[in-house]
Task: structure prediction
Amino acid sequence: MASPQMRVGARRRMATEHRREPGSNRRVAARLLAVERTDAIFPVLLQEIVVLGFPRALVASVNLETGDLAPTLSVNFPRTVQQRFRTSLHASENTLVKVLRNGKPAVIPGGPGRRALYCHPILFRSRTQCREAERRPAGGCLAVDNQHGRRKLCLPDQVCATCGMRGYSALVVVELAKGASEREIGELRPLVGLADRCLARLSKSEHYYNRLTGLENTLAQMQTVMGNMHDPVVLTDNQHRVVMQNRAAERFFKLPEAASEGRARAIEFNHLLFSAALSSMALTGAEAHRDLTLVDPVEGEELLFEVLAAPTSTPDGSRSGMVTVLREVTALRRTDAEVRSQYDRLRHAEELVRQDRDRLNLIIENVGDPIVVCDSNARPVLVDPLAAELFGSERDSARDPRRLRNHAKFDAYISSFTFSFSDRESGPLKLFNPTTRGEVEFDARSGKIYDERGQVAYTVTVLRDLTAVRKVEQLKVERRMLEIEKFAATGRLAGTIAHEVNNPMEAIKNAIYLLSGKVSPEATPVYDVLKSETERVARIVRQMLGLYRNTDQIGTVDVNSVIEDTLLLFRRQLQQVSTQVRTRLASLPMAVGSADQLRQVLSNLVVNARDSMEKGGTLHVRTRYFAGGGDSVRGAIRILVADSGAGIPPALQSSIFEPFVSTKGAKGTGLGLWIVKGIIENHGGKIRVRSRVGQGTVFQIDLPVVR
Amino acid sequence: MKPKTERGRILVVDDEPSVLLTYKLILEQQGYDVLAASSSSEARKTIEQENIDLLLCDLSLEERHTGFEVIEFARLRQPAAISVLLTGYASRDVSEQAGQGGVAVLFKPIDIEEFLSTISAQLKKRHEQSKKTG
Result:
């Protein structure tokens, strides 16, 4: 707004140009209507007032924020006089304020030393509503309200509730000459009234211009925001046609000018998918979201989006379409799916581990033997309740010296195993049992558990209480001794009888020999029966005599020396049938039993082998000891007697150990192997035979080792 | 029948009369000059009185006497005489004891062919030895 001083200078120039040239009303109206800016209205108005012949005029404007009235433009009023027109709207008794509030032009009469003043209030007003107010009648129109004086001239009231237009208020003051005629005053009223209306229109159009500029700014800002968004944003109309979209969306929906066929097809396809998705979401009429797969027309890959769509509406509330934001979640979903599956896998693994642990605990609790698990430094990490009894908890062992000793013994054992190179270990461990308060022999069996790098992770040790086993073993030994003794007694009886029979037999045999050639031809068959049957009895007697020989006590037996003695005894006989003897005797622990009985076993087997190899062959005798063999804790001695002779026919193999079964026909007694089996079983052993006709026979004997 | 002196003189000792008799008959059938004794004392008497080439003695004699005693006795009196032990107890002890003394052992029941061949072999050996010494 121009300053009042500037206008003072202008008045003089204007006065000289226009005074005495009173223009017609039409010219003045044309000049006012030609003004296109609000701030040019008052200068033109004041000029025209001066042209009409009035000496001085000014415009005082209301600051609607403070409520102050102050001169803003003046012609020919000295500055001091202008101060008379400075007041506040709150000064309701002020004549100027009264005129303003009244809203109608008025003449303030002059007084002594002061001329009368014509005052014309200027206000944003109109007889007709603006367009916004027409569309939204509820809000009312500030201009119309002012026209009808419905509103008070105060601060908040001068803003239109419908269009946001700020009102204004001013007072045009014209000094009247003395004796100014009614006609002169009558010329002023339409002039100021026209200016008032022009100002109202220009203000309204400037308001629209300002709003447009503001909207353009907002639009530019919005476009910047949308353009910089990574997520595609699409505005669609009610037919789901794209109205507006940002750059990110154009990649999927906008067909470039020189698009390849594939890209065009992809975009077409995206449009189909997108409008189908929108159709489903538009049904709700509210904000909706769903997943949507689109094709990236550039890369050709499928992308998963989360679509968030909100309906848009026009200011009058009708639906105009939808605004849709698409969030690419392909990677997110993939990650999510991965996380889920990882989680599921983890849960599954955890379940398995839990089951395993439960199972393991169940096993450990039910093994019934103390179990100790140690780490790679031979420190116990798991001690089951039974083992805890032996070694005690940390506190107990500190108190109980005997548990401490158990601890030390176990420590020494497990340390040497942990740092050894073997995978498994077993050994005796004598520990103090706090429950029975006695020393208990344990068989400690340990194994190593390796981690994936092949390092020892843990060792597991099971302690087997051998008390019961030892007791059973002792019982077995005692029973076996008894059996051997019984067999020996039977043998002695048989031997005694055989010996008693032997002498008469000798005489009979000799007598038969003496009769040979002296028997009449008719009696010869009878003589032959006599001779052959007597020979048979002689063989049985010889066999039974063998049983008689064991007069020695039951004790420990060196099996190897029994074998060597027997082979020595038969060396000549074996040489006679050109049989080679091959022995391979390993070092053996002592066996418990009768050396004589075992010698008889060996004799019988060697004799059988010799008889089966009439045309020569090889006799193998081997021994070895194996720790885990047999039923015994101490292992077993194995004796192998193998010949390369005639073999045993399959039909006979199952019954070869029964009495009176022989492969030798009339030459055999059928008692040898029966006696062998009896002796071996009495010694707690086992005998097996394998044979193939024409290839040979192998006898395998396992004798338990007892200490 | 060949002259007795050529075949040799044999003393048979056995406490079983029937066995003793049959051995005697068999050996006589083979042409040997056979003396028989049914006890160790009788055997000793015969060894003191008669010259013998071969002593055939059972291991177990009357009461607790054994054939080894008789053989021992014969060794002292007639060192040149050869001894053969007969026994029904085929024990290792006996074999060892006989082996140490250089005495041949025949286990009862005795195969007569083996019995006769052993005797003739032993006598032949003695004959050759006496030839060398004589």
User: Anything to note?
Assistant: The first strand of chain A starts at residue 57 and ends at 63. Chain A has a mean pLDDT of 83. DSSP finds 21 helices and 23 strands in chain A.
